[in-house]
Amino acid sequence: MKRTAEVVLSIISIVFNVIALGLVIFLTMSSQFVSNDPLIEEELRNNMYGSELTEADIDMALNSTQDIITFMTTIGWILVAVIIITIILTIIGTIKINKSTKTAGVLFIISAILSGIISLPGILLIIAAILCFVRKPKNSTLQSADHELI
Fold first, then answer.
1. For residue 146, is pLDDT > 90?
2. Does the CA dihedral 121-115-113-68 come out positive or negative?
């Protein structure tokens, strides 16, 4: 049985995940550059001098900002790893779809959970998994009997 719908849905999901991967890598690398840029820290410090903050408050605010950026960078790299795993599982599921539809369906469900069930790639993968489990191959003896009657 042809599994064109499942293959198309999984390929579209892979494309969206690759786009998301590029975006997350870009944002993570940008935040790393921002956190290491002394000009940005100096600009933040100059903007805070105009307020009624003390030097200790300014240093504490800058350290907190640095900690938040470091935390976000770490989360970004974790997201990169999860998206890569999702892409790999989806590619494996797409390759195995004609040989073992149940295995492909399970891989699609795992990929959907990793990519986020409410995201567009996750929804596409859930639909592909449902199609893998629900669509049954046509019985070849019935199909050949139908051709003989015509």
1. no
2. negative
